[in-house]
Amino acid sequence: MEYNHEWFTISRLCQYSNRDTETIFLEKEKENSMRTIRILMLVMGFTFSMFAITDFMYYGGARAFHISLALRILAMVITVISFFFIARIARYDRALLALTFIELSVFFIYLLILYNQQGREPVLTFMTMMLFILTVFLIPNIWKNCLFAGCAIWAGYIVFCFFFGHPDERPPLIQRAVYLGISLASCAIFLYGRENYRRKQFATEKLLEYMCITDRLTGIYNRGRFEHVLNLWIKNMRHDPFCLLLFDIDNFKRVNDSFGHTVGDQVLLGTTSLVTAHIRDDDVFARWGGEEFVILFGNTTLEQAAEMAERLRNAVENNSFEEAGSITISVGVIQYRRGETVSDFVKRVDEKMYQAKQVGKNLVVSEEIPQQQ
């Protein structure tokens, strides 16, 4: 599998341009943030409902208070239900989208309360709107969702006040719009910087991880990573039967001596691409060292692995490598024997590969295929 730095390009919406990378990042965030999100949702709901106390102090037992109380209880019920529901959503991006609409639903309920309580002090409602915007940016979410919710709250409040507010309210609507807009912009800028930093930090960690397990030239697994995977296969035996293929590029030193190391590197890259295109996604392909490469075939018999090896040999032989022209490979193929160590397993396939070299190169040599009983 190729691994490019372009996988970590961050778009203007503060997301990875590559969807797979964004999904991997969000899944990691889900492990760290879901518990916090659910708790903060409950806090939001209960805090919102607690303002019923101030409503009672302001309106007493009037009808407006009972309507307000019912709406606040509704908001609390929504957040409590969401506390259990949101954790069941498998995809984290969809859970965050659901969170955004839950926040907006609570805000809509608040507008209904304002409509019911016309005549309430504008300064108090203005401060509540500040809290709404801060809450949206406080609860973990992706930046574009926070920006969307924040802008919707800002616009919704301004439109509500324009149609249902009083012209002589103080501070003036334009002043409240500016102050809320400044708060919204400040929160958005802060969150954008933080999310951008976290994504760059994640990219750095992944690139370092990648550099530790892959070959720098070809981009496939290096020897250390391959040995680790092989140890796991031997330990759990989930891929049994499995086979090991080792091949060496014939006369590769002559390529380097005749055309230079740059052409030699092109041959290595071309061979890697060609082999990658002919094997399965689940097969493990690695550079063993120099011009030697190994492939692990899981759930594959020796006969099947030998057939695959022959197809690879033919594909390489029939391919032209520009300046270097045609090249060939010598291949050894074996099947794992239970109880065998990694070193013994590799030693056996190495012997088969060198047999192919000694016989005349451009050849596949496998151990004798066991006869079915």
Distance between the termini: 39 Å
Rg: 32 Å
H/E element order? HHHHHHHHEHHEEHEHE
What is the domain total for the residues? 2
Mean pLDDT: 90
How many beta strands in the DSSP annotation?
A: 5
Q: What coarse outline follows from CA principal-axis ratios? A: elongated
Task: Please give the count of helices.
Answer: 12
* Strand line-up in the sheet with most strands: 2-3-1-4-5
Q: Describe the biggest sheet? A: 5 strands, mixed
What structural category arises from helix and sheet content? alpha+beta
Helix proportion: 55-70%
Which band does the percent of strand residues land in? 5-15%
Q: Which stretches are poorly predicted, pLDDT < 50 over at least 5 residues?
A: none
Architecture blueprint of SSEs:
Layout: H1 19-50, H2 52-59, H3 63-85, H4 92-116, H5 122-138, H6 143-164, H7 173-213, H8 223-236, E1 243-249, H9 252-259, H10 261-278, E2 284-289, E3 292-297, H11 302-317, E4 329-335, H12 342-359, E5 364-366
Parallel strand pairs: 4-5
Antiparallel strand pairs: 1-3, 1-4, 2-3
Helix pairs in contact: 1-3, 2-3, 3-4, 4-6, 5-6, 5-7, 6-7, 9-10, 10-11
Structure description:
Helices cover 65% and strands 8% of the residues. The chain is an alpha+beta fold. The chain folds into two domains: 206 residues, no CATH class; 144 residues, Alpha-Beta Plaits. A five-stranded mixed sheet has the order 2-3-1-4-5, sandwiched between helices. Helix 12 links the parallel strand 4 and strand 5. Helix 3 packs antiparallel against helix 4, helix 5 packs antiparallel against helix 6 and helix 6 runs antiparallel to helix 7. The longest helix has 41 residues.
